[in-house]
Every structure is written in structure tokens, then in C-alpha cells.
Amino acid sequence: MKKILLISLFIVAFNFGKGQDLIFKTDGTEIKSKVIEITKDEIKYMKFEQLNGPLRNISITDVFMVIYQDGTREVFKTENSDSKLKQMNNSTLTDDSFVDERDGKRYKTVKINGKIWMAENLSFNIGYGCWAYNNDDRNISKYGRLYNWEAAKKACPPGWHLPSNLEWIELAQYILKEREGSLNNSNKEQIYDENVGRHLKSKYGWNSDRNGTDAYGFAGLPAGYRNVPQGNFFQIGESTFWWSSTKGKYALSWSLNNGDYFGKYDNYEESGFSVRCIKD
Length: 280
Description:
The protein has a six-stranded antiparallel beta sheet with strand order 4-3-2-1-5-6, with helices on one face. Strands 7-8-9 form a three-stranded antiparallel beta sheet, with no helix packed on it. It has a three-stranded antiparallel beta sheet with strand order 15-16-17. It has helices at about 80-90, 140-145, 150-155, 165-180, 195-200, and strands at about 20-25, 30-40, 40-45, 55-60, 65, 75, 95-100, 105-110, 115-120, 130, 145, 160, 225, 235, 240-245, 250-255, 260-265, 280. The N and C termini lie far apart (about 45 Å). It is an alpha+beta fold.
């Protein structure tokens, strides 16, 4: 059993499964690992990409928190741990949900930076401008529907809305600042950064083992997209696009891909993309 001698939110049984544990250091960096043992002075671990060794160790005083592969957390008492934990708790509410009264569908929700997002893609059929991937309804329960831009603007349930480009930017900036400590990206409206993308991605479902950490409970799945004018479907397992409500020369969307990057794109309004709603 792991020795838990400091403040702990949960007691986690030791196992040799292949899921990764995340060690969050007090300097804001993180280590993908397999935790072996925790003593009063140090954490013994192996890097996730080197599970055959060597065994490494890190001082408890350099660690703020460990998130184990099953999602449970262990927080260690440091000078700033209370404020860090408060910030983390403000970021994620994984147990909340919402029922769309139009069709009775229940959606998981998550609170990030004080705003409540749906934690899965919308699947409501508004009767036009929306599709199941590959026109196969079996894909809806996992990936939701794909919508053109006009349909997406009307698809969210009462009390919710399609996020604006600014709301997507604020989401990305919040994660970038929390992960890197500053907004060092020179173009704040075009954030291509793996420190955003891989933490929004789900822990499963991405091809080539390009799964994310899902550190914020956003659970971004690779739902693919529908192109225009052919109406063909592409890249399920490889990428996802979410509409914003904002239009410049083209309608604006935000995308995750297999490279972990999260960024803004201009797109034709008839493209078929996923929808995440945000609470009014």
C-alpha cells in the first residue's frame, strides 16, 4: 500500500496498472509517472514513458499534488497549498450534470474559471443542419452530433448558449496561465499550445495513443468533422472542431488535434462541427 503520511483527500490503493499518475510540482510543472511509494520525505516514481526504470524520487516539499490514474487526488501541505487547492476546486466540478428537457438527455457539466460548460458534445436534433458522424446514429452517444454554424447557434437548450470566440479565448488563457504561470503567447487570440490542448483532451479515444490528461474534466473527444461541399466525414479519432458564435470573414471555430494543440480556425458555415454549450 502507498504510505500516506501527509494531508490526503483520498486513500488510493497501490497497483501496477498502465494508467498514468500526474505529479504536480510547486513550480507549476508536472510529471507523467507511475507512483510507487510515498514516504514522509519523498515520492518514489517511474516516468510513464520509462516504466521499466530507473526508479526516481522527488522531495515532498517540491510537490503540491498527485492526481492518480483513477482521478483521485492527494494534496500535500505546502506554503501555498491552500490557495492552489482553492484554485483547483474553482476549476472543476466533475459531479454536476444537466438535463436537457427538450429530449431528456443528461449532460455532464464542468466549472472552469467560474463558468459552467457542458463536459460532452451536444447531441440534440434540431431537425436540420445536423448529422451523426458518417450518418451512423451509433456515433451520437459518444461524440454527439455535428452541426453547421446556423444550426449550432440555435441548438443549445434554454439557459445555455454557443460560446463566443472571446469565451473560447478566456478558457484557453486561463489554462495557459495556470499551467505556465504567464501568457507568453504573443498572439492571445491564436493560442496554439499543447499545454492547453492536452489538458482539454479526454484520457481515451485518441488514435496513436495521443490521449490527454483531462485535467479540467472537459473530456474533449476526437469527434471528427463533416466537410463542404461534398458532405464527407473525416478524422474521427484524430481531431475535433467546436463552433463559436462569432463570425469575421468566416465563422470561427476552435480545434483540438492529435498533436495536442488547441487553436482558432476560420471555416465555411456549412461545415459540420461539434457544439459545446456554456451556461448563461
